[in-house]
Structure formats: C-alpha cells, structure tokens
Design brief:
Strand order of the largest sheet: 1-2
Number of helices: 11
Strand content: under 5%
Helix content: over 70%
Number of strands: 2
Shape: elongated
Structural class: mainly alpha
Largest sheet: 2 strands, antiparallel
Length: 335
C-alpha cells in the first residue's frame, strides 16, 4: 500500500515537472524569430500558408515590394493549439525548415529513427555492465594490491578522457588503421544482421568505455565499504567461508547502491549519445535533435526535448522503486 501511494505521488510529480519543463521549452523557443524564409525550391506563399496553418502566424499579406507581413499569434494561444492537436489528433507537427524531411509528419520520422538510438545504448549497457562490475569486484577484493592499482589507473584514464576523444581514437585505430570496422554505421534498416551490428560496434565501444569506468568505480567503492562492515565479521564467525560471505551478504548489500547507479548511467549514456551518433553517422534520434536546432525547426525540437525529458524523469522513478526490490527492508513512502 505504501509503495502504491508512493508511486502514484511520484507519477503525479513527474507529470507536473514534465509539464513545467515542456511549457518553458515551448515559451522560450517561441520567443525566437520565426523562420519565414522559403527554402530553395519552396514557394514563399506556400511557406507562409504552412506557418499560418500550424497556428504560428496570422493576417499574412504580400506587399507590393514582395515583402510578406504577418502578425504573430500569442504564445500561449499557440501552446494551447499545440497541446490540443497532440491530445485530440496525435499531431506533433510537421517539419517546416528541416529540408530533408520538409512537410513530413514528425512522429513518423521520430519513430523511424528511434531503433538505432535504442540499440546502441542497449548494446553499450550489455557490454559495459558485466565488464564494469567485474573490474569493480576485482578491485575491491584485491584492494591496495597491484590489481587494484592497475584497475584504478584504467578507471581514471577512462573518466578523464572525454568521450569525444575516445571516439576519435576508436575511429582512427580500429576503423582507419586496422580496418576492423567501418567508419560510419550502415544505412540498412536490417538492424539485427551482422553487417549492421558490426557497423554499430565503434559507436557502442565509444559509449560503453566511460560507463565501464563508472560501474567499476561505484562497485569498488561500495563493495570495499561493505566488506569492512561488522556484519561480515559476524558472518565469518558463524562458519561461512569468505566466498559465501561475499556472495550472500556483501554483494547483496552493495547492489542496493550499485544497481540504481546502473540505471542512472544508462540515462546519462542515452543523453551523451547525441554527439556520438553524429560522429559515427548513426541515423538515430541524436542527429535529429542536433539538426533540429541547426535548422531552427521548432516542432522537431519540442518533440525531441519532450522525449529526452520524459526519459530522464521516468528513470528517476524507476531508480527509486528499484531500491525496494533489491532490499525488501526498504519501503518507499513508509513512515
């Protein structure tokens, strides 16, 4: 019952927070100049009529000198119409300045580009979590020995070097010099074939290297603290071997902190994949987000900002709930 009340409260707060952030993004983006210049090959009148149809401007007129004039629709009225279209029609807008997808439905474009983004993040997590946990466990069990020192050096290097630099090194060494992987991802939509998977691996490695360092650092710090706890000494005096005490007690207690850190690291990887996708030619959501800013396509920007905001807020709830599943003694929302 406590958990149900807690989750309901958190969902309500999440929706409130999302609404505030989404509204602020809409207001701020609408304070910018409206891109009314027609693209090459696009008729200016069609451009103006499209903006009028989307509810951005009104009272458009073409002057005798060929200059178009218009009145801006009040921002909150635009916001009301925007939300109404989303709720009643599922209409997130059309691309108005993003030339490659001009006049295309934004939701369909977003859905078509979502699989590569999700896959490279899932692959990086599947690779990074086992390696990071293993390194962290070894470092904790061999604390202050040469194994621990070596792992700490690797962790510091991976954390200190920006992911962009690591990505460039991967491209140069493994893609250019050794030729093991292509420089950019395959354009094929057959995501679960070997050629496409192979073309994803450089981006996956670039994403998971930093995550491996984070997982190893969390695991080493938490497990080292748990291993020095008095309950571990009590477990040994009751007849448990060192391996049994570590497996049954130390690992379980340390996972209370480690597992939520894995979820938070996944979200940070998802956010950090924006640049990596661009560098490795991943035809995913990250490229759309950056290009929507470059092309000043405001509806595109709103859809993708809402997506990343919702992912971050949802992850926060999942992380909090996970504490109760990992350790039954924790009752979220109980007094």
């Amino acid at each position: 019952m406590y958990m149900f009340k807690y989750v309901s409260k958190r969902l309500g707060l999440m929706l409130l927070t999302f609404s505030i952030i989404f509204t602020m993004c809409f207001v701020l983006i609408k304070l910018l100049p409206i891109p009314t210049t027609a693209l090459p090959g696009q008729d200016q009148e069609v451009k103006m009529k499209t903006l009028e149809g989307r509810g951005w401007i009104t009272n458009i007129k073409e002057g005798s000198n060929g200059v178009w004039t218009y009145d801006r629709v009040p921002i909150m009225l635009q916001f009301g119409n925007y939300i109404k279209r989303i709720v009643t029609q599922g209409d997130f807008g059309i691309a108005t300045t993003y030339g490659e997808y001009l006049n295309m439905d934004l939701w369909n474009v977003f859905v078509n580009h979502l699989p590569p983004t999700i896959l490279i993040n899932i692959y990086s997590t599947l690779i990074g979590v086992p390696i990071g946990l293993a390194l962290g466990i070894i470092a904790a069990l061999k604390k202050n020995k040469w194994q621990d020192q070596l792992i700490n050096i690797v962790i510091i290097l991976l954390i200190s070097v920006p992911s962009i630099v690591l990505a460039l090194m991967i491209q140069y060494v493994f893609c250019f010099k050794l030729g093991w992987f292509p420089l950019t991802m395959s354009v094929s939509n057959e995501y679960f074939t070997w050629p496409v998977f192979r073309s994803m691996l450089p981006a996956v490695f670039a994403l998971c290297l930093g995550s491996i360092a984070g997982y190893a650092r969390y695991t080493r710090a938490e497990l080292s603290e748990v291993l020095t706890g008095e309950f571990m000494l009590l477990a040994r005096t009751k007849g448990l071997t060192k391996k049994q005490a570590i497996y049954r007690h130390a690992m379980r207690n340390s996972m209370v902190v480690i597992f939520p850190s894995i979820l938070s690291e996944f979200v940070s990887v998802l956010s950090g994949s924006l640049i990596i996708e661009k560098m490795f030619g991943i035809n995913g959501v990250g490229g759309l987000y950056l290009n929507s800013i470059t092309f000043q396509d405001y509806d595109f920007f709103m859809l993708l900002s809402g997506f990343y905001t919702l992912v971050s807020l949802t992850a926060g709830i999942v992380i909090d709930i996970s504490y109760g599943f990992i350790d039954p003694r924790i009752r979220m929302g109980a007094k």
